[in-house]
Amino acid sequence: MSSRYDDELWSRVPERSGPPPGHLAAFVSSLTPAAAALDLGCGDARLSELIEADSLTIADVSEVALARARPRLRDATVVALEPDARLPLPDNAFDLVLCAETIEHVRDVQHLLSEVRRVLRPRGRLALTTPAHGRLTGLAVAVRGFEHHFDPLSPHLRFLSRRSLARLLDAMGFEVQRLGREAGTLFAVASR
Question: pTM for the full model?
Answer without folding.
Answer: 0.86
